[in-house]
């Protein structure tokens, strides 16, 4: 009986059928990147806001004040009397009623005594010039509540982490395409609920669920694509990453054109419903079907692939070799039971953690620098394109391991140099930091490919999901690590990123080279990799 790879060669390893499926599933990368980075635009700082004095709303209506006039009457005296107060997080500890003069509401306190009036912290009386422009103004995530914006991104990453475990397991047990379609439906529905959340608690719950399903779409589409092409074409996994980068570049355009955060949230969520149409055009992974003892279905799909590719399967292909390994429900012990699997798993988990922590840290660090948010974000996405092109040029010529190690080491050294470059040479500091971003982007994209190639079919989706869950742990830690350490010394996070990346670069050199090798079908196949 022929093996699956032999049948795939005759049906076409990357023919018209695979190219169509590949292009369709690549669109998932665009929508996933929208979800991944959307907090930058959903949580933009409101342009101008201040704390309203109790009774000011009614008095403003009675006196016919504009918002600017009300601000002048309440905030300006506060700034004049208490130079240290901006009127954003505290207010004068007074209350206005109908007896207050419209012309000079603070006259009763005397002109000279405003500075001596007690101040009160603001709790929920904020006024925004653009009330629905972001979740910050929608849910009052300012002043003492500002940390809740970081929480919203940590909750999304927690959703990614949960999705990696639960949906990664489900895709190995119930099938790739079923979990992919259910995940697309989940992302769309949760995205709509997030857009119309009546309070911040509901927002967080469904943002978490959107993270769970979002991770399901991304991981399963990646595995499906990798399992239906030949070993020489597996670098197309890197091209999927280019669609992620394309999404990063499109997102600031959407945010620039759509004025409200609800509009942005709907614009990035609704496209997921279109992916439900893939039910009719994207088949189940035949590799997965074989591991679940469904050889007839797998063969039927292979005949269909051959037909679309203009090929013809030989009549003696009436059955395909099925792995002798008993199909069991995967567990973490399966990933660490044997020496080579154990080494691969531990190194890959660390590589995922480092890639995510350094990548997200460098992206968020750009936000601290300031400037034009839309343009800066677009440029930071454009920087990632050369990373994918460099991988495509090197990975089939010199293998996976060397570019993987070097890209991490380059990122680490670039972070270290950036930390100690003087502020008065901004162009050099930006250039070296960009080199670090390029290096860690390469490492982030290679780890996907290497992870898939180092696990057997029976454990592949579970293994990738489990290892990549460390990426989500890195994503949860990144915002807190960056902002807390930057408060001590602005460049301190770069020192931490540098150490993590260089250690990672040295560790990944211990992994086996997988260039040109068929995807392993069993744990024994993995153990034989040297």
- Compute the CA-based radius of gyration: 27 Å
Question: What's the number of helices?
Answer: 23
Can you tell me the CATH superfamily of the largest domain?
Answer: MFS general substrate transporter like domains
- In total, the number of strands is 4
3D structure, described in words:
It catalyses: histamine(out) = histamine(in); guanidine(out) = guanidine(in); (R)-noradrenaline(out) = (R)-noradrenaline(in); agmatine(out) = agmatine(in). InterPro entries: MFS_dom, MFS_sugar_transport-like, MFS_trans_sf, Orgcat_transp/SVOP, Sugar_transporter_CS. The chain is an all-alpha fold and 530 residues long. It folds into three domains: 1-47 and 137-325, Growth Hormone, Chain: A (Up-down Bundle), CATH 1.20.1250.20; 49-129, no CATH class; 327-529, MFS general substrate transporter like domains (Growth Hormone, Chain: A), CATH 1.20.1250. The protein is built from 23 helices and four strands. The chain has a two-stranded antiparallel ribbon with strand order 1-4. The protein has a two-stranded antiparallel ribbon with strand order 2-3. Helix 9 (176-195) packs antiparallel against helix 12 and helix 11 (236-257) packs antiparallel against helix 18. The longest helix is centred in the last third of the chain and has 31 residues, at 339-369. The protein is elongated, with a radius of gyration of 27 Å.
């Amino acid at each position: 009986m022929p093996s699956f790879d032999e049948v795939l060669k005759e049906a076409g390893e990357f023919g018209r059928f695979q190219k169509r499926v590949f292009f369709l599933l690549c669109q998932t990368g665009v929508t996933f990147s929208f979800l991944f980075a959307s907090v930058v635009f959903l949580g933009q700082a409101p342009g101008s806001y201040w704390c309203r004095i109790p009774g000011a709303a009614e008095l403003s209506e009675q006196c016919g004040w504009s918002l600017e006039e009300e601000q002048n009457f309440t905030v300006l005296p506060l700034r004049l009397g208490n130079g240290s107060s901006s009127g954003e997080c505290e207010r004068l500890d007074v209350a206005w009623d109908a007896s207050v003069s419209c012309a000079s509401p603070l006259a009763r306190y005397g002109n000279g005594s405003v500075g001596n009036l007690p101040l009160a912290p603001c709790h929920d009386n904020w006024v925004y010039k653009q009330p629905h422009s972001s979740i910050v103004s929608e849910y009052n995530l300012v002043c003492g509540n500002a940390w809740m914006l970081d929480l919203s991104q940590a909750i999304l990453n927690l959703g990614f982490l949960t999705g990696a475990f639960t949906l990664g397991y489900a895709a190995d047990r119930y099938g790739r395409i079923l979990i992919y379609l259910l995940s697309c439906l989940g992302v769309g529905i949760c995205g709509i609920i997030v857009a119309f959340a009546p309070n911040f608690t509901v927002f967080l719950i469904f943002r978490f669920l959107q993270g769970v399903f979002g991770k399901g779409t991304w991981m399963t589409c990646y595995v499906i694509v990798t399992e239906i092409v030949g070993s020489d074409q597996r670098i197309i996994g890197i091209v999927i990453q280019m669609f992620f980068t394309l999404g990063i570049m499109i997102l600031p355009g959407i945010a620039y054109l759509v004025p409200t955060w609800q509009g942005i949230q709907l614009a990035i969520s609704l496209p997921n419903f279109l992916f439900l149409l893939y039910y009719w055009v994207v088949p189940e992974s035949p590799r997965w079907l074989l591991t679940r003892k469904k050889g007839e279905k797998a063969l039927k799909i292979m005949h269909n692939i051959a037909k679309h590719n203009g090929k013809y399967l030989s009549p003696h292909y009436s059955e395909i070799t099925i792995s002798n390994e008993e199909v069991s429900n995967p567990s973490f012990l399966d990933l660490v039971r044997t020496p080579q699997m154990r080494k691969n798993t531990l190194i890959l988990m660390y590589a995922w953690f480092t890639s995510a922590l350094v990548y997200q840290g460098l992206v968020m660090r750009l936000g601290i620098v300031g400037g034009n948010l839309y343009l800066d974000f677009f440029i930071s996405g454009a920087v990632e394109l050369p990373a994918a092109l460099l991988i495509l040029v090197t990975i089939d010529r010199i293998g996976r391991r060397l570019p993987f190690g070097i890209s991490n080491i380059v990122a680490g050294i670039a972070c270290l140099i950036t930390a100690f470059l003087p502020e008065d040479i901004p162009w050099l500091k930006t250039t070296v930091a960009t080199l670090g971003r390029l290096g860690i982007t390469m490492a982030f994209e290679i780890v996907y490919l290497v992870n898939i190639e180092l696990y057997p079919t029976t454990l592949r989706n579970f293994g990738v999901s489990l290892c990549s869950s460390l990426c989500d742990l890195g994503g949860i830690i990144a915002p807190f690590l960056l902002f807390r350490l930057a408060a001590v010394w602005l460049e301190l996070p770069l020192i931490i990123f540098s150490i993590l990346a260089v250690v990672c670069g040295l560790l990944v050199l211990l992994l086996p080279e997988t260039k040109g090798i068929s995807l392993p079908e069993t744990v024994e196949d993995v153990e034989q990799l040297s």
